[in-house]
Amino acid sequence: MPSAPKWLFDTLEFLTPKLPLIEVVETVFLSKSVKKICFKGDLKDIQFAVGSFIDFRVNDTEARRYSVSYSDIEKGLFEFIIYLNGKGCGSSFMANVKVGDKIVMYKPRALSRYYDKTARRFVIFGDETSLALAVSFLPVLKENKRQFLFIFELDEENKEVPKLLGLENCLIFPKNFLFSKEDWLSGTPIINSSDWHEASFVLTGNVKSAQTFRKIIKEKSNGNIYLHGYWLEGKKGL
């Protein structure tokens, strides 16, 4: 529910479980449009899984959802990797978050289907909006000795961001609509390599790219597919 009347958000805010008051302790710009924000607070009895997210109320009538990239329960720290596209209220809100800000925040929730414990190989696809999810995936994949590949379509200014985040095994492509072209996708090595035909594919980011990728995977492999598009051109607050 990205948009709703103020009275409804006020009611939900009153009824929804919240974290104790959270403080911003660090902000780092990894590029002009990618910002890492670190929060600190009492995380007792809080669970963070791969794909955990928190909904931020960014103004009186709108909320936006952001994935948690990292957490340390003992130190009370957790982080987000935020893409600032400069086009909406969520971007404006996060761009203005600064060290020392204290924010009332809902408790995290998780989509358990992101991480399939039975899968031996993973392909995680997305764009700048998917970086936080990728960062949350990495330690789990390494700890459980899974094979993995991250595929990103990124703006030119962000092509070094995955490296800055410590992500490994990354393929970076320009954001020029290649992943919406079925003929191009059908010829890529990742689609045609038998090594990845049984992989678990996690497709996020641009809805159109993710849907096209899913269609080709279904035609070419037997892998499990989880699709959760984060944005769609012309649609607000997906």
TrEMBL record:
Pfam families: FAD_binding_6. Residues 17-115 form the FAD-binding FR-type domain. PROSITE patterns: FAD_FR. SUPFAM superfamilies: Riboflavin synthase domain-like. This is NADPH-dependent ferric siderophore reductase. It comes from Sphingobacterium zeae.
